[in-house]
Amino acid sequence: MKTVEIEALQDINWDKLTFSLTPTRSMYLARCALGKPWETGDLVPFGDIPVSPAAGVLNYGQGVFEGTKAFRTVKDRVVLFRPDRNARRFVKSAERLCIPPVPEDMFLDSVVSTVRDNMDFVPPLDKGSLYIRPCIWGTGPVLGVKPASSYTFVVYVSPVGPYFRGGMTCLHLKVTRFFHRAAPKGTGNAKAIGNYAASLFPLKLAKEKGFDEVIYLNAANEKWVEEVGSANLFILKDDVLKTPRLGGSILPGVTRDSVIQIARDLLSLDVHELDITVDEVLQADEVFCTGTAAVITPIGQITTDQEHQVIGEDVGPVTRELRDILTGIQREKREDPYGWVYPVTEF
Ligand SMILES: *Cc1c(COP(=O)(O)O)cnc(C)c1O
Whole-prediction pTM value? Predict the structure, then answer.
């Protein structure tokens, strides 16, 4: 096994990283014509790409994305976390939007080569991570509503810090009855770009009123909580951990799945995936949200149209423990009993 020399790191103020774009050396780019297989792609300098004004993605939102991270670990190497899950979800999202899916092995190879070529942008241990953003866009021109004639697959990366300002401070969320994130049988379970455009306005209104994010209810009858704009929701009550079941309008998060397994296997908690009412959330002992970007972020206060509920000022003990275990596995500080960690510095 050969180890790639880790060059000197970029001259970046690693202590000041936020969740924002820092351009890096290169990105991966591949193209595909509708009905043909994907061409072998290449690393190209990070930068703008020319697209037709009639591109499917620009006119009809034909685009999907993924989000995963590379971490520098205590073993002084760089690892990915469960990238095979992102590869599989990317295929499913693409299929839902009539986008030719990128084969899973091509996805993994392109992510690994992009990270390897930008290794000096991976933050030092515990200073953040390298966020990896694979996207596919319908870039061929279309006028009528139909799938674009050609597609572009890009993987770009950026060193990032915490998604929510303040990192581990408790969030204040608003339960919205004015907007739905996803409809039953819609695109809520795909990482389709349009889902996020639609979430910007509810998020803007919530932020203007001092909330950090929005909790969405199910569109059919507004009886159940679904998720936060870009993260899955969990509640803990009397040592039982609950999260909304995946009914088609919830994004199946890799972090969600990891937290369920850690809670069951390593913390011996009862974990249930089921319908959860707003009242149950308000009465919970601990509430948190999960995502690649959000990691595990505690929720301290929740406001509905009728009431304001304080869950807790401090991070709950189970939330903290789950976060310590998850981030410990990702940084190879703890044993990885699942084989989730995927080294990119050895081959
Ligand atoms: C990406 C995403 C999540 C989190 O998924 P992870 O795989 O854990 O990053 C949750 N909800 C929505 C709407 C998302 O887009």
Answer: 0.96
